[in-house]
Design a protein that fits this description.
globular; single chain; Beta Polymerase, domain 2; 12% strand; 6 strands; two-stranded parallel sheet; 10 helices; alpha/beta
Length: 215
């Protein structure tokens, strides 16, 4: 089965994603059930050399450590040879991930584009598993898990962007998302926390302690 819906892949990333997909198809064979693209590359808003690649890939059974390592190596190879791709999330998920999480089924159906394989939400629906439609109730339910939106000052945002050793987004992009943060602060002030007086290390220690699963 060939890749489909490739017109939904932002042009700067298309060749890299198709190459990665073909490699995955060859490696996993019939165990590869489906690949879905989500995020800014699907919507056409990605910044080449800045935005990462978000997609879901599902296989039969649990991935072995060897298979996971192979996927990580493929991701490194793609990011080395395609300058637009700076980070590629190539994690193989078992179908059980969808079977056991209704929000994942919702996200795959409503917030992703299928690039390869079977329509998994439809498959699971036929087996009696619910795939929710978008609703206000669902949005509110997901927001209950939100702790804080950290919003340092614009000057601090620009300073940290310029000091980042690997890449910078640039003033225009910083202004864009800073304006979005300020709109959120005006509409939901209780969600927002000014971290201008903290270093990045202090922010992590104060606000993420107990939330990070991996070092």
């Amino acid at each position: 089965m060939p890749f489909i819906n490739t017109e939904h892949i932002q042009a700067e990333y298309r060749a890299a994603l198709i190459e990665a997909g073909e490699a995955l198809i060859a490696y996993f064979g019939g165990r590869l059930l489906a690949i879905y693209l989500t995020g800014s590359i699907m919507t056409g808003d990605a910044l080449p050399g800045v935005s990462d690649v978000d997609w879901f890939m599902f296989i039969t059974g649990e991935p072995t450590e060897e298979e996971s390592a192979w996927c990580r190596e493929l991701a490194r190879d793609i990011t080395t040879r395609y300058p637009a791709v700076v980070d590629f999330h190539l994690t193989p998920y078992p179908l059980a991930r969808l079977e056991g999480d209704s929000f994942w089924r919702f996200a795959v159906r409503h917030r992703a584009i299928r690039l390869y394989g079977r329509d998994l939400p439809a498959v699971l629906e036929a087996r009696g598993l619910v795939v929710d439609a978008p609703s206000r109730e669902m949005a509110i339910g997901r927001q209950r898990g939100m702790h804080r939106i950290l919003t340092p000052s614009r000057d601090i945002c620009l300073q940290r962007d310029q000091q980042r050793p690997c890449w910078t987004a640039g003033p225009e992009y910083v202004d864009q998302w800073y304006d979005e943060f300020q709109a959120m602060r005006r509409s939901h002030p209780a969600w927002c926390l000014d971290t201008s007086e903290e270093t990045v290390e202090e922010t992590v220690a104060r606000h993420f302690h107990g939330l990070l699963r991996y070092a």
